[in-house]
Amino acid sequence: MRLIANAPVSFGVFEPGQPPLAAEELVAALSEAGYDGIDLGPLGYLDLGRLAGLRLAGGWVDVPEESFDDLDATLDAFGRAPSAPFRPVPTLGPPSMPARFARPGHGEPEMTDWAAFAAQVQAAADRCRERGYEPALHHHLGHAVETPDEIERLLELTDVKLCLDTGHLLLAGGDPVKALADWSERIGQVHVKDASSALMNGDLRSMMGAGVFTPLGEGDLDLPGVVAALRDYEGWIVVEQDTLPAHRRTADIVADQAANLRKLKELGL
Question: What are the residue boundaries of the Xylose isomerase-like TIM barrel domain, all occurrences included (predicted)?
Fold first, then answer.
């Protein structure tokens, strides 16, 4: 079985200031579109007792460097939301790197202390498992784990599963269809995201404002190939289209997320 969710990041909710949609409006839009679930978004944004029939798919939390307080707070939130048949997946985010954020997708400069970072990831993964959740490391443009080689290295140094993000992998030089096959045994969650390499200009924020993450089927992602590779996948699939709300009409963002789900359904997912 697989379930399909969307995420507040698709609506620019992580941006400073007033969210473009109130939580109840976002939940209603995703429920009406036919999604099975929703990602957590910023702690405190969602009313986890009022998800209009949606289940909680998971949520991002930075890899803890010292204290587990933020991780524990996220896991506490998970426990307050409906999630069956799959438990929410804590997606562990590697630290951002300003130089990479300024020039995303090139894997430069490289992280130097892999042993220390791997130990932090492993400790966070173990903490999640103590709490009854199976985490996944989310590679990300502008962060310490960005390229296919870095993902491979992290998988070798830890036993953590992978949150495979097709858009971030594509723009970092990876092949999402090949990755879904090569890392199938280690994938704990999939984020389906399209992207346009032609819009890789400037820093990551500028790229997002320019629409580098396109509606599904409008970028460079081999979407039919991704769908075919997910035929036997079981678990949460999260549709994401990272955006800056100041550059988009809210109505268009809402329409895009409904269209993204329709596109996946048309392809047989």
Answer: 107-252
User: Residue 9 contacts by C-beta under 8 Å, 6 or more apart in sequence?
Assistant: 39, 41, 240, 242, 243
Residues 6+ apart with CB under 8 A from 200: 104, 105, 171, 207, 212
Go through the domains of the chain in sequence order and give each one's CATH number. Answer: 2-266 (3.20.20.150)
Task: Go through 89-98 and write b for each residue having 16 or more CB atoms within 10 A of its CB, e for each that does not.
Answer: bbbbbbeebe
pLDDT of residue 160: 98
Please check whether residue 147 is in contact with residue 73, taking contact to mean a CB–CB distance below 8 angstroms.
Answer: no
Residue type, 161: K
Task: Identify the residue with better confidence: 79 or 83.
Answer: 79
Separation of alpha carbons 149 and 251, rounded Å: 39
Nearest 10 degrees: CA dihedral of 204, 29, 258, 170? Answer: 20
Reported as a single tens digit per residue, the pLDDT across 82-119 is 888 999 999 999 999 999 999 999 999 999 999 999 99
Q: Any idea what DSSP says for residue 17?
A: S
Q: What is the pLDDT of residues 41-65, one digit of tens each?
A: 999 999 999 999 999 999 999 999 9
Cis amide prior to 109 (ω within 30 degrees): yes
Question: What per-residue string of b and e applies to 108-135 under the rule 16 or more CB within 10 Å gives b?
Answer: eeebeebeebbebbeebbebbeebebbb
